[in-house]
Design brief:
- The protein has about 250 residues and is of the alpha/beta class.
- The chain folds into two domains: about 90 residues, GMP Synthetase, Chain A, domain 3 (2-Layer Sandwich); about 140 residues, 2-Layer Sandwich (Endonuclease, Chain A).
- It has nine helices and ten strands.
- The strands form two sheets. It has a seven-stranded mixed sheet, sandwiched between helices.
- Helix 6 links the parallel strand 5 and strand 6.
- The longest helix is centred in the last third of the chain and has 16 residues.
């Protein structure tokens, strides 16, 4: 298993676990990377050495991450794949100058979709750009207000129709909001359903951010991929400028 594969597996394991500070831990690990230190110390098996796992983070996050060391040590040992040559030794939290690689993961969900969106909103550090046809979910709306008050840049694109007008949500009061009117002979509408977070993560699928959608059969994909996120961000900018064709 490569260092990148190990890092991605670590994130996925924590994301699907029940650790009480999961969201905070994932936020810290997004700025981290994994390095392996292959030691010259033998294990109890013939010609097998210990390999230390080093979680490298920027210096300003090291102290925060050390609070979660016990849980990280447990998970790192669980996911390590022993080979004939190496077995896991110690797990260390060390300072790293920058990310050694970009995380690329994709998770697809069919249940608890609102919960998954909330988790990603809480993991955001800088920006949340949302383009959805309809938005009537007060729980998601309140969470976005909370993040806006914490200093995040939040922008919203929705359809300019009666569903959103009658939602009771004051979008313009809190966020930079763009309402896109139906276009063309057939009254075509924006039917996008995506959210770009920190230009690294994209939430997309069939799920509109509405109360009704919670009871529908819907799909949701969460992609942690910088290239994919930037492509969606470019589409968001085109929507704002009225350049996309619907």
């Amino acid at each position: 298993m490569s260092e990148k594969e190990y890092y991605d597996l670590l994130l996925r394991t924590i994301r699907h676990g029940d650790y009480k500070d999961r969201e905070e831990l994932l936020r810290l690990l997004r700025s981290a990377y994994i390095s392996f230190d292959q030691t010259s110390q033998f294990t109890r098996k013939s010609w097998q050495w210990y390999e230390n796992v080093e979680i490298r983070v920027p210096p300003e996050y090291k102290g925060e991450l050390e609070v979660h060391y016990k849980y990280l040590d447990k998970v790192c040992n669980e996911i390590y794949a022993e080979t004939d040559d190496y077995d896991i030794g110690n797990v260390y939290i060390k300072i790293g100058a920058k990310k050694a690689f970009d995380s690329t993961t994709q998770d697809v969900y069919f249940e608890d979709l609102q919960k998954q969106i909330l988790e990603q909103i809480r993991l955001a550090q800088f920006t949340i750009w949302i383009a959805v046809a309809w938005f009537t979910d007060r729980i998601l709306f309140r969470e976005l207000i909370k993040r806006k008050n914490e200093g995040l840049n939040i922008q919203l694109i929705i359809v300019d129709d009666d569903i959103n007008k009658n939602s009771g949500l004051e979008f313009e009061k809190y966020f930079e909001t763009h309402r896109v009117a139906p276009m063309g002979y057939f009254g075509n509408i924006v039917h996008h359903k995506f959210c770009v977070i920190d230009f690294e993560t994209v939430i997309h699928g069939s799920y509109n951010w509405t109360k009704k959608a919670q009871y529908n059969k819907e799909t949701l994909s969460i992609d942690v991929n910088r290239e994919t996120a930037q492509r969606f961000a470019k589409e968001f900018m085109k929507l704002k400028q009225g350049e996309s064709v619907f």
